[in-house]
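LOG
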Amino acid sequence: MQQMQVADDGFTERVMSRLPDGRALRLSRLWTALCLTVAVVLFVLLRGWEMIGYGLLMLTNCPPTQGQVLLTAVSFVVIGYLMVSDFLWRERLRAL
């Protein structure tokens, strides 16, 4: 199959030269791994499972207040928006 050349006045070369190299990707993955490790260590040190258990116990034993219902509704809207925008962004990238 033959490649087709389109005259773009060097635009493609300029874009390709500005893309991050493999080092940036490695640093990003390393940073992600470091943050995840810190989160797990803090969860264990601060006994996060106890906090989650206490929160669930409070949710089941106490009737929700109006503020809690509003906060929950806003949280669901924000999470839903993020999920939809992420999906649309990934679809847009696939189309390129």
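LOG (cont.) second protein
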Amino acid sequence: MEQALKMHPLSATRRPTMADLDLSPEQEAEAQRLAAMIGKKAQEEALPMARILVAKPDAQLVGATAFEVRDRAHAVAAHAGETALRERKQRGTRGRA
């Protein structure tokens, strides 16, 4: 029987949660390594994002500023995918079919 996916409280889309993922010990180890690499990139982007936000008055936190911060967040997400692919190629592993 298919396990129901939990809803994120601020989103109308269904997103998998940790409980929905059935990883082998090797996959979990790979996930931990990948998370560390993604976390480093996220940390590199966090301070520039914070500087952008604190430099703007309240009225300017939406619109162009929000897009500038979002672009940096998207760069972190793109880095995550690129890193996962590069790591798989280097290790000669493949994702689930």
